[in-house]
Amino acid sequence: MSVRIVLPAVGLCVLLGHGRTWAEPQPPAAGSDRSPVLQGPVLLEVHAPPLPPAQPEASDKSLPINLATALRLADARPVVIAAAQASVQVAFQQLAKARVEWLPSLNVGAGYYHHDGSTQGQSGNFYDNTKDQFLAGAGVTARFAMTDALFAPLAARQVLRARQIDVQTARNDALLVTAEAYFNVQQARGRLAATQHVVERGLLLRNAITVEPSQLERASDLHRARAQLANFDDAIATAREQWRLASADLTQVLRLDPSATVIPIEPPNLRVTLISPDQTVDALIPIGLTSRPELASQQALVQAALVRIRQERMRPLVPSLILEGSPGAVGPGGYLEAGIFGSGANGTGNPWVGREDVSVGLIWQAQNLGFGNRALVRERRAEQQQLLVELFRIQDQVAAEIARAHAQLASATVRVETAEWGLQEAQLAYDGSLEQLGKIDKVGIAQVQIRRAFEVIDALKSLSQAYDNYFVSANDYNRAQFRLFRALGYPAEALASKVSAGPLLPVDTSRPPQMAPVCVPTPGHSP
Questions:
Q1: Average pLDDT of 100-126?
Q2: CB of 48 closer than 8 Å to CB of 269
Q3: First to last CA, the chain
Q4: Residue 207 exposed, middle or buried by CB count within 10 Å (0-12, 13-18, 19+)
Q5: What mean pLDDT do residues 268-284 have?
Q6: Strand 61-65 to 260-264 pairing
Q7: Between the chain's N and C termini, which has fewer beta carbons within 10 Å?
Q8: In the 8-state DSSP scheme, what is residue 272?
Q9: How far is CA 175 from CA 59, 271, 273, 442, 515, in A?
C-alpha cells in the first residue's frame, strides 16, 4: 500500500511505500528567498527485506494511520496550537482596545444632592438651610494621555505580530512531536516484528536439537535454547508494551482515541530524508537564523519595546486630555454633562429646567518633577535590554539545536548503514550456523563437531541484537531528519497543512479538538 504526499511549498511529490523513490524537485518560485540547500528532493528508502508486519492482539482496538495523515492532524489538533491561537485573539483584542483609547466614554444616569444644615458661602458668611438638587441626563468623559493613544496601538500591533508568529512556532513544535511519536511507534512495532521473527528461527533451532541431537552436550544445549526462547518471549511482551505506550503518546498529541493501538501503514524500516546529510553545519545555521519563527517573534517584541521607550520620552511633552462635566455639577464625579435639572431650598421647589456643564482641559504633566518620567524611560530601556538578551539567547539556542540535530543526523546516517550491513551478516551467520549444526568433520583420526548448539544460539542472539540496532538506527535517522527540519525553521505547512495524501485515512474523532479557527484581521503598517 502506498500513500501519495504532495508538498507544494517545496514542489515535491513523493510516494511512501516499499522500494526507493526519488521526488523530482521543482524550481523555486519567482522572488523566493528560500535557500537552495532545502530545495532538494525527499528520499524514502526501504533497504532491508521486509518482515511480516507485527499485528496487535485480538483484544486491542486498531487505528490504522499513515505519516501523511499524522502530519495533517499535527497541524490542526494539538492543544499547543490552540493555546497559541488563543494568545493571538488576546493580543488582537488588546490592539483593538488601544486603537480606541482616544474615544470618550458615554455615561447615562441620574444624580441627587441633598444638604441640610449650615454652610459657608463664597463671601464667608454662614447659612443654615436645606436644599435639594437632582440631575438626570447623559454625558461623555475622556481622561487619557495622548502619548498612550498615539503609541499604544503601535506597540500592541508588534505584540500581535509576535503572537501570530508564535502560532507557526507551535505548529513546528507540534510537527516535531508528532513525527517523533510516530517513529517511536514504528520502532516499537519493528522490534516486535523482529523479535517474533527471531523466535520463529529459534524454534527451528530447538527442533533441530531435539530431532537430530548431537552426542555432545545434548541436554545442556536443549535447555540453553529453551532459556533463550524464554528471553525472547519476554522481549516480545516488552516490545508490545512499548508499542502500546508509543501509541498512547501519539494519540495524546493528535487527540485521538487513547485506547487504540496505532498501526502505521508504512513499513517500520522506512527512512525519510528531508535534508541531505551531506550538508554542513556552516551552511545550515544561517538558514535557521533567518527562518526560525521564534527569532521573528522576539524581534517583534523588541520593536514593541522601542515604541514604548518613545512613548515615555514623549509623555511630558504631549498633553493629556480631560473632558467631563463641570466639577460643580450635580452627579458623581462630573460624569453627567447635560440633562433635566431640578432644585429646591427650604422646602420651596424651583421649576425643572435643562442644564449643561462641560469642562475640557489639556494637561502637561511632569511626574514627580520629571524624575518619575525619567525612571519610566529607564525602565522601558531595561525591558528592551532584557528582550535583546533573550533574542541573543534564542539565536544561540537555534544555532545549538541545528548543530545537535546535524550531529545526530550524521551519527544516525553512519549507524543505519552499519546496522543494515550488520543485519545482513547476522542473518548469513545464523543461517550458516544452523545448517552446519551437528555436522561432524574428521581432523586426522579425530572427529570434530563443526558447529555446536551454543554457537548457533550465540548467532541467534547476535541476529536479535542486529535487528534491534537496525530498527533503532533507522528511526533515529528519521527523528534526526525532523529535528533538523524543525531546527531550521522550515514552515510546518510544508509537510502538514499543505500535504495531500489522496483520501486521508479515516481516524477516530471521538475526541474532537474543540478549537475554533482563529481569523484575525491584518493590522495596518508597522512602525
A1: 85
A2: yes
A3: 53
A4: exposed
A5: 89
A6: parallel
A7: N
A8: E
A9: 31, 17, 16, 63, 18
Q: Provide the residue type at 295 as one letter.
A: L
In eight-state DSSP terms, residue 360 is: E
Question: Which residues are paired to 113 by β-bridges?
Answer: 133
Full-model pTM: 0.77
C-beta separation of 268 from 467 below 8 A? no
Question: Residue 40: pLDDT above 70?
Answer: no
pLDDT top residue among 395 and 1:
395
Rounded (10°) CA dihedral 280, 283, 289, 292: -70
Which amino acid would we find at residue 7? L
| Type and span of the H or E element at 442 | strand 440-443
**Cβ neighbour number for residue 430 with a 10 Å cutoff:** 25
Q: Where are the beta strands (DSSP E) in 50-104?
A: 61-65
Burial group, residue 24, by CB count within 10 angstroms (0-12, 13-18, 19+): exposed
Q: How far is CA 346 from CA 118, 126, 340, 513, in A?
A: 12, 15, 21, 70
Q: Which pLDDT score is estimated for 317?
A: 93
The band of 89, judged by pLDDT with boundaries at 50, 70 and 90, is very high
Query: Residue 274: helix, strand or coil by DSSP?
Result: coil
In angstroms, rounded to a whole number, what is the distance separating the alpha carbons of residues 243 and 239?
A: 6
d(CA 441, CA 220) in angstroms, rounded, equals 22
